[in-house]
Design goal:
By secondary structure, the protein is of the alpha+beta class. It contains 6 helices and 3 strands.
Length: about 100
């Protein structure tokens, strides 16, 4: 999915809750984010931690395999920034481009 790389990019800085991820990805639906997170978890690229609290808290983080993708994700981000059109450059300041 087109969102997987962006999700992995945002998780590089540390664990995030579902709502935090959703705010960082304004163009994604709740259903699509759930689907992409499940796929990344199934591929062992992220881990999901459920905390026994009221209300329940769930955090997503990169797994060791996910951390090994960091150089690839950074290279894709750098490539996207170098090859964007001038009209896209102002948008990138608010949201990273991972093509």
């Amino acid at each position: 999915g087109k969102w997987k790389g962006v999700i992995l990019y945002h998780l590089q800085d540390g664990p995030l809750r579902f709502g935090e991820l959703r705010r960082r990805l304004p163009g994604i639906t709740q259903r699509m984010l759930t689907k992409q997170l499940r796929a990344l978890e199934q591929d062992a690229l992220i881990s999901r931690a459920v905390f026994a609290e009221v209300p329940p808290r769930v955090e997503y983080a990169l797994s060791p395999s996910g951390h090994s993708l960091r150089p690839v994700i950074d290279a894709l981000k750098a490539w996207g920034e170098r090859h964007q059109s001038p009209s896209q450059r102002t948008v990138v300041a608010a949201e990273p481009v991972i093509s």
